Amino acid sequence: MVTTWVPDVLGDGYQQLTIPLGKDPDGEGEVEATLVRYQPTEITGTHAVLYVHGFTDYFFQQHLAEHFAEQGYSFFALDLRKCGRALRPGQTPHFVTDLRMYDFELNEALRLVREQISGGHVLLVAHSTGGLILPLWLDRLERRHGGSAGAGVAGVILNSPWFDLHGPAVLRSAGTSAAIDALGRVSSKRPVPLQRLDTYGSSLHVDANGEWEYDLDWKPLTGFPITFGWLRAIRRGHARLHQGLDVGVPSLILRSKQTVRAPSYHPTVDEADAILDVDQIARWAGCLGNRTTIVPIEGARHDVFLSTAKPLADAFHEVDLWLAWLHAHHLTDTETRETGASA
């Protein structure tokens, strides 16, 4: 099923593993995913993080891997099919017509990570579109025997998850949804006529106004084109989320405190979410089920973990507080089960 670990583009301490996925159901040849691990030393712990990126994105956030490693977690990240390291010539970046297609690589990545940590627990972390994909997958996982926790998932951290379309209410109307559904079914690769702005990208990349270095072929400043087939899959995912999910494990949601709209780069973009409506994140956060903690971060960007120094430090502080709670929560649950079994 898989090849061997080889050096990754991120350099020392990083390796990657190709996960073959077979023929693409959307007709773009053979597809694969890529699992990345940060392993500066031999893996000895029984806890790991599995990170999933968003749209027009891939894993490059080395500081994120290093922070979790400092907390005692082995770190892994998944580049989904047709994304980042897994994008192959002739394929449409990020294109799928059903978000359930990602279940295969998510299941396999979870299996591989747990194999690396001898069956220990895995904390899932996801950003933006990944923050929609993961809860939908976990809801399906929870319906299986043993549920999400039984599959080894300890909890989930969502970084500015994409829970609904931003913009005017008409974009979320029944008529617009029906039009997207029809066009996505018959013209799946037709681009949605949207203006592609480099506002957010320019706030991030070191060659523009930002401080982060990444591959512009895998994460272009103006983003990849959005197709009707992909948007149809997203809107169906949103509709399912809005009905209410049960991810089966506790969740932490991080988001900016405000949204900003700008046609070109302005310093205010560095202190707000320039991609999603944070009110929509707040509105639908309760749909995950189980125990959910929501923390707005003052001055955070859309990718909270690519914020400037102060909000980034605040975000990591909130993560560490929540991890301490999660560890205590699991200890309490274990003691309760053991006490009940011996009674």
TrEMBL record:
Name this protein carries in UniProt: Alpha/beta hydrolase
InterPro entries: AB_hydrolase_fold, Hydrolase_4, MAG_DAG_Lipase
Keywords: Hydrolase
Gene3D superfamilies in the cross-refs: alpha/beta hydrolase
Statement: the UniProt record of this protein carries the keyword Ion transport: no
A Pfam family of this chain: Hydrolase_4
GO molecular-function terms, A-Z: hydrolase activity
Domain Serine aminopeptidase S33, first and last residues per copy: 48-257
